[in-house]
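ARCHIVE CARD
Drawer: 12
Card no.: 0347
Subject: one protein chain, sequence and derived structure
Cross-reference: see card 0346
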Amino acid sequence: MLSTIIYRSHLCDDVPVKSLEELAVKANTINEQHGVTGILLFNGTHFFQVLEGQEESVRKIYDRICTDDRHHNVVELMRDYAPSRRFGNAGMELFDLRKYDRASVLQAVLDKGTSKYQLTYDDRALQFLRTFVEARERENYFEVPSDGGWEFIADEQTAVKGDASLPEAEEYSFAFQPIIDPMSLEIVSLEALIRTAGGGSSAEYFSQLSRDEVYKADIRSKKLAFAMAKALGIQGLTLSVNLLPMSLVMVPDSVDFLLREIEANGLVPEQIVVEVTEDEAISRMDEFDNVIRQLKSAGISLAIDDFGAGSAGLQLLARFQPDIVKIDRNIIADVHKSGPKQAIIQAIIKCCASLEITLIAEGVEKPEEWMWLESAGICNFQGFLFARPAINGIPAVAWPEKN
């Protein structure tokens, strides 16, 4: 099966441009040995490469390319299949865009190809090529420094240790994780995450219960979350709590219960954010709609958690106008290396900016993920890179410091 991989990357500053021809000769030899063909474009700063061949061979060549220290910010733009090769004349042909007239450079590149259709049928690979040649996406090339440039130093002053005086429940507890603005060195919110009594995950806790019990436990557990937040002294911070969408519908007077417990623990509705996940089906949408109105009327904010993980995200976004959208960790993971993920996140950023919705990137674990997301315009983050959840306490936050 004929496979195609397209990527772009950035030439390292210490690599002389004159060495590129030698690079292309070596790549041509290696690629021909593996039955891989393609073209390598260079515009003076960035590379754009099309690799075509049998799937396993293309993958091995690409994995080798990703470890080459002569370039950085390697971003995979497309991984797909095709009936025939677009550039089948050589293992790898280098094309320096700077040597051609701007008006005719696209055709000059296409003339190197072996596809008889060229751009006739809107081939995605050739559309990517045209976009690169015409430099129409330069403003969206958010890149991280080749040397990283940051280290993350734990600030123990932000930590609040749990102690025996904190409220407890026999069946479960809560861990707290900060949501932060790293550049402002500010904790903007805390999320209360339900855990088993032994510190196990929320999934582990809920798996022990029947469906009806899950909904009741989901709502009732927030009594402990609010009490623990009070004991930890969250003061002016907002507190996020997770709820299954159907818990709000299936448990009678769920909103009244939440409001009573908020007041009983000296909190105010305006500092509470209810996060609903989009990956649970909402079978009674009109009733859910009514509950959301009650929450908002009381002053409680609404967040869509794990946005992008399920099928209901866009519907929830259009219908309920949340105050906050949290981008799912599976979209965040290795975003600095994935063109499709970058395009999705840029679209989410633009959409939420138009709707004045706050964005949070959750599940951030790598400095490169944070650097790309920050460059793209996201300010608020949550993830192990900055702080892991702490049972019955608030963890120290590792703030980024420039090397």
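Annotation on reverse: Residues 193 and 363 are 14 Å apart (CA to CA). DSSP finds 14 helices and 16 strands in the chain.
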